[in-house]
Amino acid sequence: MFARCLCHFLPGRRQEKERNNSMKTFSKISLSAAALALLGITALSTKSDEGKHSDARWKTIVIDVAADDRTASINTASPTDTGPKRGATAIINGKIYPGGTIAAGDGLDVDTLTGSTGTWISRGTFNFDLSEFVGGAPLLSATQHYLFSPTGALDGEDSLMSEGPEFGVTTHRVVLGGTGRYRSVIGEVQQETLGFNSTGFANFRFTFTIRSPE
User: Fold this and answer.
1) Which of 68, 145, 153, 203 has the most CB atoms at less than 10 Å from its CB?
2) Distance, C-alpha 160 to centroid of its chain
3) In terms of Cα–Cα distance, which of 184, 193, 185 is closest to 165?
4) Which domain holds residue 31?
5) Sequence-ordered alpha helix ranges (H) in the chain
6) CA 149 – CA 32 distance, rounded (Å)
């Protein structure tokens, strides 16, 4: 009786086992296919243009800036601080010129330079105590505005804005967007120091690589 029941039960177990094996095999195939598809998508997304910006919407803009130390203002992190420490904030203005206007080196007299195309404003936070800064790393984390207006107006229609590290080394910053002709752009900007001017602060060159939405 037990033997007959066992013989009756085993074929059903075998069929169930075969079904389970089939389901496991199908699941493994499905997971493998999904993994391969995901790898394909990832490879495609990471190799889109290999950083060459082949899309015609990408363009390069180069500007020079003479920062004016006479416009600088620093708020210390503590009322007892005798100099800028980590967390202190600062703001400074400068004049924008077409790229290539300012030569590398020190001693530029900003008061005799003509042909400004706008105003640059940088407001940032110190990453280090100024007394400890020896170079080799960006001194500030800053937001910068590039306001394009030959009159120097701060409410001009065309502008760009970037965020990132600043001063001490050549840095790469995120372009957050813009207004007017630069509305909805994305990209990055490289900031390099050209030298120091007659006000005591730096001259910079900014190389923008930006893409318009259209």
Assistant:
1) 203
2) 13
3) 193
4) 1-48
5) 2-46
6) 58
Task: Specify whether 204 is located in the same domain as 140.
Answer: yes
Residue 60 amino acid letter = T
Per-residue DSSP letters for 86-131?
TT-EEEEEEEEEETTSSPSSS-B-GGG-----EEEEEEEEESS-GG
- Entry pTM: 0.74
Cβ atoms within 10 A of the Cβ of 184, count?
A: 11
Residue 20 lies in a domain: yes
C-alpha distance from residue 180 to each of 60, 101, 160 (Å): 17, 24, 9
Contacts of 129 (CB under 8 A, 6+ apart): 83, 84, 85, 86
Token pair 């800064």: residue: 133
Tokens, residue 118 = 């706008």
In a domain, 53, yes or no: no
Could you tell me if 159 and 180 are in contact, meaning their C-beta atoms sit under 8 angstroms apart? yes
Bridge partners of 120, per DSSP, are: 94, 146
Per-residue pLDDT of the chain (214 residues; tens, 9 = 90+): 323 332 333 344 444 444 445 444 444 444 444 444 444 434 433 334 455 566 788 999 999 999 999 999 999 989 899 889 999 999 999 999 999 999 999 999 999 999 999 999 999 999 989 888 877 889 999 999 999 998 888 888 999 999 999 998 999 999 999 999 999 999 999 999 999 999 999 999 999 999 987 7
Q: Which of 209, 213, 214, 189 is nearest to 65 (CA)?
A: 189
Q: How many domains does the chain have?
A: 2
